[in-house]
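Exercise: predict the fold of this chain.
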Amino acid sequence: MVSKAAFEDETFVRNDRLRYEKNTLSSRLAILAIVFNALFFVSIYKSDVGNYYYNILIGGSIVYNLLFMMFVFLVSEGSKNYNRTYSFVAIAFGIIQFARIFIIPMQAHKDTIQISKKEAAVSVMGNAQFTRVIIYLVLSGVCLLISAAVGIWKCNTLKKHLEEISEKE
């Protein structure tokens, strides 16, 4: 059996390690969210369905993806140093990733386009591609939300631990 004092010592040591270690779990989850986002936009932008994707919505999507990657990389770096603010930014971007499902993928999945007069109208985004891009967006959003939850939890644990140490001194 483990005594209460030994358990408290283990907890103290585990919490004290936070002062000297980076929050790599939150950081890596944010980077993984960037990877899933990159897979999403590569899947969308490599599609060659006539001129369906040549519009302002895709232009805005490209700009958003660039901003997403820059800000989420910043979230990754900020969360390493136990800054709670970056966790809230990760939550916002995670929610946006879920909302993006209803913009390009849903619209492209339901639309059809006729490439030439001789051919019949074809679906802009087939079922397989639709499923794949939805999975990428969901995984990206989930990674960001878990990254934020871990970041907030570790920040609160470290803050409480530092307060306990300062009270003892």
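Check your answer against the key: Residues 55 and 61 are 10 Å apart (CA to CA).
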